[in-house]
Amino acid sequence: MLDKIEALKVFCTAAETLQFKETAIRLAVSPPVITRMMAALEDELGEPLFQRNTRQIVLTDFGTQFLPQAQQLLEESERLFAAGRHRHADEMAGLVRITVPDLPDEHAVLRELLTALQAYPKLVLDWRRDTVRLNVVQEQIDIGVRIGHLADSRLIARKIGETCEKIVMAPALLRRLGKPKDLADLQKNYPLAAVLNHNNGRADTWYINENLQFTPAKPHFVGSHIHNALQAALAGNAVSQQLDWMVAPYLSSGELVELFAEVPKIRWPVSIYRPQRVVTPMRVKVVFDLLIEILGKRFELPV
Q: HTH lysR-type domain spans which residues (predicted)?
């Protein structure tokens, strides 16, 4: 089927150059493509557009009359598509509010996202660290990243990976106290680092697996953030439970050692979600898809 808009573009260019070879160079196609398209357009119109000889082409009377109409139609089609591009740009203007927990390479993730969004200068990101589990509706969250299971059916979610938590301590503390015999020994005889839950003000529970969990009853260190507990572990002040990606470099360097590595751990899903709305702005969908791609690479799961 003849692409009529493309054929008109070829015709107008050929009418300007009066050479099919030069037309092909300008449009980055082969000369036979130009010849075939002009023949198809002439067949469609039922009139010749050019008179040809071995050295040049010239417009026929019909071609001369047809040229301004073709140019006008191309200009109108360009305005039509330009309006579509402007409309898309307008749809990408506005605020997208994102809430995230601790993420691997968070600074690199944010930088990659902002780089990908440079084509949309009117788009504004509100990037929030989720130390308190925010109310998606009240806080007008557009996109979130969640570690753990999502029970809210009003959310559209994509799983991008999994993580687990590891119990770690510094080698110096291990040499001083020895290795705990079991979790009961750990709770009773070892200094533990606790992280306060901002939603209820109590220490977070250490979930090991479905059958093993406990809350530090008398923690040796209390912090408001998981990073605080990590520093306590690195300093040899306390034993801490940490997300695997946060302690991976310290386990590799020997600054921390893992306890109870043989005990099965809960695998927590990591998901990107957005509220299910009657109308979701294009800008939210674009950022949502970009985050799936960017974070999916960090977790090495197919997206």
A: 3-60
CA distance linking residue 156 with residue 299, whole number of Å = 20
Phi-psi region at 254: left, alpha or beta (left = phi > 0; alpha = psi -120 to 50): left
Q: Are 5 and 77 contacting, i.e. CB atoms less than 8 angstroms apart? A: yes
CA-wise closest residue to 96 among 146, 141, 158, 155: 141
Give pTM, 2 decimals: 0.63
- Residues β-bridged to residue 219: none
Helix (H) or strand (E) holding 223: strand 221-223
CB 266 within 8 A of CB 164: yes
Q: Name the one residue in this structure whose structure tokens are 């493509």.
A: 33
pLDDT tens digits for 92-111?
A: 889 999 999 888 788 889 99
**pLDDT tens, position by position, 178-187:** 999 999 999 9
Task: Decide: 155 and 99 in contact? Cβ < 8 Å.
Answer: no
Is residue 87 classed as helix, strand or coil in its secondary structure? helix
Q: Is 105 helix (H, G, I), strand (E, B) or coil?
A: coil
Q: Which of 230, 235, 216 is nearest to 170 (CA)?
A: 235
Question: What is the spatial distance between Cα 251 and Cα 152, in angstroms, rounded to a whole number?
Answer: 35
| Rounded (5°) CA angle 130-131-136 | 40
Label residue 133 by pLDDT band (50, 70, 90): low
- Tens digit of each residue's pLDDT (9 = 90 or more) over 243-272: 998 999 999 999 999 999 999 999 999 999
The answer to whether residues 214 and 180 touch, using CB atoms and an 8 Å cutoff, is: no
DSSP calls for 82-144: HHHHHHHHHHT-EEEEEEE-S-TTHHHHHHHHHHHTTT-TTEEEEEEE-SS---TTTTT-SEE
pLDDT in tens, 42-57: 999 999 999 987 667 8
Which residues 6+ apart lie within 8 Å of 266 measured at CB? 164, 165, 207, 208, 209, 210
Kindly state the percentage of the chain with pLDDT values over 90: 50
The alpha-carbon radius of gyration of the chain (Å, integer) is 32
